[in-house]
């Protein structure tokens, strides 16, 4: 399991609080692939994966987008 980052912990707080639109907005501006992977692992560990289809789609889509070598966010 990937080690949870501070960003992933904060987004998990939004998810657990029921504020999925805010969590999706944060996922869209995720700082790195590593952060998204740790969020995905945290969702699986908390048995929350699959509960919100739009949240799962946002994580998967942004993992693909940030994994592409020519599509990256500058610091």
Protein architecture, described:
The protein is an all-alpha fold and 75 residues long. Helices cover 64% and strands 0% of the residues. The protein has helices at residues 6-16, 20-28, 33-45, 53-67. α1 runs antiparallel to α2 (20-28). The longest helix is centred in the last third of the chain and has 15 residues, at 53-67. The N and C termini lie far apart (26 Å).
What's this entry about, in short?
The protein is mainly alpha-helical. It has helices at residues 6-16, 20-28, 33-45, 53-67.
* DSSP summary, beta strand count: 0
Structural class: mainly alpha
Q: How would you characterize the largest beta sheet?
A: none
Q: Indicate the overall shape.
A: globular
Helix content: 55-70%
Low-confidence stretches: none
Gyration radius (Cα, Å) is: 11 Å
**Could you give the order of the helices and strands?**
HHHH
Assembly status = single chain
